[in-house]
Design a protein that fits this description.
homodimer, 173 residues, alpha+beta, Arc Repressor Mutant, subunit A, four-stranded mixed sheet, three-stranded antiparallel sheet, 7 strands, globular, binds zinc ion, DNA-binding
DNA sequence: CCAGTCATGTTATTCTGTTGCAAATCAGTG
DNA sequence: CACTGATTTGCAACAGAATAACATGACTGG
């Protein structure tokens, strides 16, 4: 199947405790298998990212990190983020300068992201149709693709079901 | 035709003087028609962006701007950039924090960008197949699309024709 | 001329991310 | 254990990207 919804919109409340726990377990396992170290700082940052189901900013992470890790500085969090990105455990959302947990770190991939402008929810897809179409279109230009950044902004299902004004941000444009 | 190459890779050297002049003329015309003012600062910034056929950084623009416009400050250039973005005369490349001239400002559009990691060349597409596929895929998630950021990194045709080491950046990964 | 809008000047600040080097920790080795 | 080399962290400074806030100037239309 071409369409792989890695992280859907969390419309119905889910067991988030478990959701995070699963993600952490996957991460542990993956790092073990790869022979890289998911150190306490890295683990904590990943936890903080998963804690919200939204894109998280580096300096927000830093603030939270400082609460129980006195002496944390920008490099602390950026190094952890670099590690997590390398291991495919998180993704960076370029258009937001923010980071989000990867819903399927079992194989490395670039995701395609649906970003709700009202509630900040993000769904991750990993759709081969999209990947392939872009690669094909690029090829017609003689271009060889190494990396794709696909970020789609709009309104998620939950927010569409709601009168404009209720959700976060008064964008009565 | 679905495939619209707005700005192709400039493989053969082209008449860049004219290329810029045309772009400026289009911009003048478009602003006139829209009843907005392409002031000297805005015009200069657009010129500077077109001067290179690459993504240009805001602070590089600022430096250049200062050469003949003493007293230019960050807001000077960011305000000009905002204006040019609004008028669809330039695009912002999110993954680079950089700006590039739009090859077809005649109608407003989001572009899809092919970015060469070796030589920094960028080609702009505005391909309805891509746009539509993404909209369709988003729709299957109940998502309504307002905006798309499509940035594809890789190697452009000219650079593919050249042994790795010659071009900028030693990425013998 | 006056008021209103748009554009610019100016200063400071915030947010985002990196560099460089020293200290600590860890894994393997004899 | 002690020695070594690699990885990770601590720390201080800095660079780069963007915005806030408020004053000033310039171009409208009456
Ligand atoms: Zn969850
Ligand atoms: Zn993912
Ligand atoms: Zn364009
Ligand atoms: Zn190239």
């Amino acid at each position: 199947m071409s369409e792989d919804i890695v992280t859907p919109f969390r419309s119905h409340p889910h067991n988030h405790q478990r959701c995070v726990a699963d993600a952490m377990a996957l991460a542990e396992e993956r790092c073990g298998r790869r022979g890289v170290r998911l150190t306490p700082i890295r683990r904590r940052v990943l936890e903080l990212i998963w804690g919200r189901h939204e894109p998280v900013k580096a300096y927000d992470l830093l603030d939270q990190l400082r609460e129980d890790h006195r002496g944390a500085a920008p490099p602390t969090v950026y190094r952890a983020l670099d590690f997590l990105l390398e291991q495919g455990l998180i993704h960076r959302i370029e258009s937001l300068n923010a980071y989000i947990g990867c819903g399927d770190p079992s194989h490395p991939h670039l995701g395609q992201f649906l970003i709700c402008d009202r509630c900040n929810a993000v769904a991750e897809m990993d759709d081969s149709d999209i990947r392939d179409l872009l690669a094909r279109k690029a090829a017609t230009q003689g271009f060889h693709v190494n990396w794709q950044t696909i970020e789609i902004n709009g309104v998620c299902p939950s927010c569409r079901a709601v009168p404009e004004s209720v959700s976060a941000g008064d964008d009565s444009d």
